[in-house]
Amino acid sequence: MANQMKTVAQPASPEAAASLAGEVLSPVPPAELARLRALATQVRRDILMMLHRAGSGHTGGSLSVADILVALFCSKMRHRPQEPTWPERDRFILSKGHAAPAYYAVLARSGYFPLDQLMTLRQLGSCLQGHPDCTLTPGIDVSTGSLGQGLSVAGGLALGLRLDARPSRVYVVLGDGEMQEGQVWEAVMSAAHYKIDNLCAVVDRNELQIDGWVRDVMNVEPLDAKFAAFGWHTISVDGHDFGQLLPALDAAERVKGRPTVILARTVKGKGVSIFEGKAKYHGVAPNDEELAQALRELGEA
């Protein structure tokens, strides 16, 4: 799926118009929006069935980031599932590595490995471990799991690609709780200093972490003002709206001379009422009853 789509959407709401003010916008075809929404729903079903089978893992943050990963891998990024190490590919880092089930589901749906392997999540000998491992899983560029490190690695990758004069871009997804890590802000400062404009960070801004609301544990807001103060181009979107995610990603690619961060407002546990907005499900897999209800709400395939 070496997708080189460059469409940019008209905002779906006045809020979107405000968040993308100053950007040149054009509509995303309705058929493309419908395709991505259907795929994201299937990815959510995959996530829940994987976690249920494993009996452990991270439900809330995997569901909140699903639309972001679908937008990247299934519409925006240049990559080749049958040639995972293609030199000209865009690179991706899931800094919030505990959301690996969403990453694996999107990779499988993109064709990196057979779908039936998803049901081996966290099993001994499986290529799908609890956190991404680039030595085991096709399509993974960087192993992650220890929070706070992904943006540093992404900046280094982007600088290397620039030195090699490659057209590739680097995308990194972080959690908003992860923004409490000091190393993140060192990387923010470094990326701006070196004008790394082939780097795009996306913050999964679901406002919850394992211990509760981010604002109560250690408030990180205002993220937009902080990134801007460091010299980044900032864009705020609804992280579940492909009509906003796609234009934001395209706008980021047009920015020259500085990196871009997309602050994606999301809902922890998105798509299933019993999981939405609850810190309890940060690292808890669904039981039999919860899985049944979740699949009913998502519409069993």
Helix and strand layout, with pairings?
Layout: H1 14-19, H2 30-54, H3 60-76, E1 91-94, H4 100-110, H5 150-163, E2 170-175, H6 182-193, E3 199-205, E4 208-209, E5 212-213, H7 214-218, H8 223-230, E6 233-238, H9 242-254, E7 260-265, H10 288-298
Parallel strand pairs: 1-2, 2-3, 3-7, 6-7
Antiparallel strand pairs: 4-5
Describe the structure.
Strands 1-2-3-7-6 form a five-stranded parallel beta sheet, with helices on both faces. A two-stranded antiparallel sheet has the order 4-5. Helix 2 packs across helix 4. 52% of the residues are buried. The radius of gyration is 18 Å and the shape is globular. The chain starts with 13 loop residues before the first helix and ends with a helix. 41% of the residues lie in helices and 11% in strands. With 301 residues, the protein is α/β, with parallel strands linked by helices.
In short:
The chain is an alpha/beta fold. Helices cover about 40% and strands about 10% of the residues.
Tally of separate helices:
10
Q: What does the oligomeric state look like here?
A: single chain
Going across the biggest sheet, name each strand in turn: 1-2-3-7-6
From the alpha-carbon coordinates, what is the Rg to the nearest angstrom? Answer: 18 Å
The CATH class designation is Alpha Beta
How far apart lie the N and C ends?
A: 23 Å
Q: Give the structural class.
A: alpha/beta
CATH domain fold name: Rossmann fold
Question: What's the number of extended β-strand segments?
Answer: 7
What percentage of amino acids are in beta strands?
A: 5-15%
Largest sheet: 5 strands, parallel
CATH architecture: 3-Layer(aba) Sandwich
- What form results from the Cα inertia axes? globular
- Helix-strand topology string: HHHEHHEHEEEHHEHEH
Q: Mean pLDDT across all residues, rounded?
A: 92
* CATH homologous superfamily (4th level) name: Thiamin diphosphate (ThDP)-binding fold, Pyr/PP domains
